[in-house]
Amino acid sequence: MDKQIVTIERHIVEQERSYPGATGVFSNLLYDVALAAKIIARETTRAGLVNVLGRAGSVNIQGEEQMKLDVFANETIIRMNSFTGRLAVMASEENDDIIPITDYEPGKYVLVFDPLDGSSNIDVNVSIGTIFGIYRRLSDAGPGTLADCLQKGRDLVAAGYVIYGSSTMMVYTTGQGVHGFTLDPSLGEFLLSHPDIRVPSKPLYYSVNQGNEPYWSEGVRRFTHWLLGPRDGDGKPLSGRYIGSLVADFHRNLLRGGIFYYPADSKRPSGKLRLLYEAIPLAFIAEQAGGYASDGRRNILDIQPETLHQRTPLFIGNRDLVEKAEEFIAQYDK
Ligand code: AHM
Ligand code: MG
Fold first, then answer.
1. Is 271's C-beta closer than 6 angstroms to any atom of ligand 1?
2. Which atom of ligand 1 is nearest to the CA of 249?
3. Considering every ligand atom, which ligand is closest to the CA of 247?
């Protein structure tokens, strides 16, 4: 029983100590996100009971129907962060425009997030997740701007996700490794359960919506067939695993090794996933865990976002597998 119990608060404070000039604002911002995650976790686990399932009836900018839990998660994160004095602006998948901090004193950070990703899985009790990224503001003063939100992944200060699954976990990085915390519902605390996560060098899984194969490019098709084979004599073929919740698919492959991809195809020439609040934060986490993320041609972290809701193809996971995808695409998809 001498194993130390490390709460997320303690872990954040201990990490902050390695930054001599830190004021604590950033640590508090991470707690705010963790607290919002606990509130969302409480609602997602009660969803079937309190009859919050179903559609809210409104349609978001991507033309998708929002479900009630998406709206709840979005409002929770905005509400928990708008008055703290820590943020200048937010951007959410569920809001057409940026959410500048106007009614309270604006702070120096920027929060971009997908409040509840994988929403088609809510109704069927399958894991869903929240994804977030934190930047420093670029503008000097006043409410934050669109330019504050459109920063490259290289400039992230922190990124993370929360998975609402068989247990709730929050996984984050501030550029000092990737650390995972499991929510103890009886304590209401996230406890360090997965310190210093590294992508295993031997991958187990490939994850892609294979129903889209008729629309794939030659490069993606050939890459997939390569994955299914002995892969340069590298042992067993990979197993296919696909949930259709990005956070859950990413999380499994982060812990077990593998590649997730949602390529561009003839139906979706820019891919499906969003650059700013889906691909970029997960790319930072992947890199910090020894993996890699690409749009098929370049590092996701080097892409300059141009619009808030821009989509991107995404290949993410073990570096050698992602680089192999880049090779196939360079060779066959001119
Ligand atoms: P959402 O933002 O509407 O929830 O959609 C994003 C989700 C991702 O979680 C997942 O990786 C992908 O869509 C699955 O798409 P598909 O059903 O086309 O395979
Ligand atoms: Mg999403």
1. no
2. 11
3. 1
Given the CA of residue 114, which atom of ligand 1 is nearest to it?
Answer: 2
Measuring from atom 18 of ligand 1, which residue has the nearest CA?
209
Determine if ligand 1 sits within 6 Å of the CB of residue 60.
Answer: no
Topology of 205-332 in CATH?
D-Maltodextrin-Binding Protein; domain 2 (3.40.190)
Ligand located closest to 126 CA: 1
Q: Is 303 exposed, middle or buried (0-12, 13-18, 19+ CB in 10 A)?
A: buried
Cα-Cα end-to-end distance for the chain: 59
Domain with CATH 3.40.190.80 in the chain: 205-332
Asked if 176 and 159 touch (Cβ cutoff 8 Å), the reply is: no
Kindly give the number of the ligand 1 atom that is closest to the alpha carbon of 242: 19
Question: Whole-angstrom Cα distance, residue 264 to residue 313?
Answer: 5
Burial 69-89 (b: 16+ CB within 10 A, else e): bbbbbbebbbebbbebebbbb
What does each of the 334 residues of the chain score in pLDDT, given as a tens digit? 457 899 999 998 888 888 777 788 888 999 999 999 999 999 888 766 655 444 555 566 666 555 588 899 999 999 999 999 999 999 999 999 999 999 889 999 999 999 999 988 887 889 999 999 999 999 998 999 999 999 999 999 999 999 999 999 999 999 999 999 999 999 999 999 999 999 999 999 999 999 999 999 999 999 999 999 888 766 678 999 999 999 999 999 999 999 999 999 999 999 999 999 999 999 999 999 999 999 999 999 999 999 999 999 999 999 999 999 999 999 999 8
CATH number assigned to the domain covering 8-194: 3.30.540.10
Predicted TM-score (pTM) of this structure? 0.93
Nearest CA to ligand 1 atom 12: 244
- How many whole angstroms from 45 Cα to the centroid of ligand 1? 20
Regarding the beta carbon of 209 and ligand 1, being less than 6 Å apart is answered yes
Domain with CATH 3.30.540.10 in the chain: 8-194
Residue closest by Cα to atom 17 of ligand 1: 244
